[in-house]
Fold this sequence. Notes:
The protein contains seven helices and ten strands. It has helices at 47-55, 95-105, 110-123, 139-152, 169-186, 197-203, 236-260, and strands spanning 2-14, 20-32, 36-40, 62-67, 70-71, 79-82, 157-161, 189-194, 206-210, 218-223. Strand 7 (157-161), helix 5 and strand 8 (189-194) form a beta-alpha-beta unit. The structure holds adenosine-5'-diphosphate (ADP) and magnesium ion (MG).
Amino acid sequence: MSLVQLAGVSKVYRSLKGSDYVAVRDFSLDIREGEFFCLLGTSGCGKTTVLNMVAGFEQASAGSITIAGRPIVGPAADRGVVFQGDDSLYGWLTALGNVEFGLRMRGVAAAERRQKAEHYLKLVGLAGQDHKHPSELSGGMKQRIQIARVLANEPRMLLMDEPFAALDAHTRADMQHELKRICASTGATVLFITHDIDEAIILADRIGVMHAGPASRLKGTVAVDLSEPERERTHDRFVGVYRQVHEMIRDEVAISLKRAH
Ligand SMILES: Nc1ncnc2c1ncn2[C@@H]1O[C@H](COP(=O)(O)OP(=O)(O)O)[C@@H](O)[C@H]1O
Ligand SMILES: [Mg+2]
């Protein structure tokens, strides 16, 4: 069953000078309940625009976006957003305080709040770091806290916009592994944005490739039907999926480079 449906969605940005920019046009996509969907595309093609509309931060200019059959009209607790940087944490709160924050705002009682926050900190591999402040933690740890904070609200869907892009290669591989484990244990539906083909193949059940902008839409999707051992960059089946995705995105990279010059 599909959880999120985008049907014929367009997004036009109005500039202050009065000229319009059509970022996305006639974009359609169904994401199934429990699916890990990676949206892949060249820089500036409209990935963040799509995520922001699903998050409810931006209104679609045309078309419809629904979650569980209801139109998305704004941000809500059923969708948790993880951003790229780690600077959205509150510097004056501890790791535990940051994870508890949303629960506190929703009026969850102290004991339950603490128990939940500790549970999710443990789930992201940060047990025992509860009392540290963001300034005492590495980029990877801060990103884990962001994820724990979003998970603590128990959203139906996770929206992640290049969440690991700023991390070094080792931390990034570590986080990809952790995220897979977490999603397997929570059964969350995920819309994950990346421009990295490897990352998409490591994580996704299905990959959607976007056209280069402007007026971008989905070019096609690729099912990633790989077992865990096959999600290894050197595995023949991994390489097979890589070729398939690369084939789709190659021309779009060329188009977007040409347009940038
Ligand atoms: N608020 C905005 N106003 C005007 N143009 C925007 C705005 N946000 C994004 N854009 C433009 O829309 C296009 C798609 O942007 P974005 O969704 O951020 O791309 P991506 O995330 O794929 O790199 C880009 O050309 C960008 O400059
Ligand atoms: Mg973006």
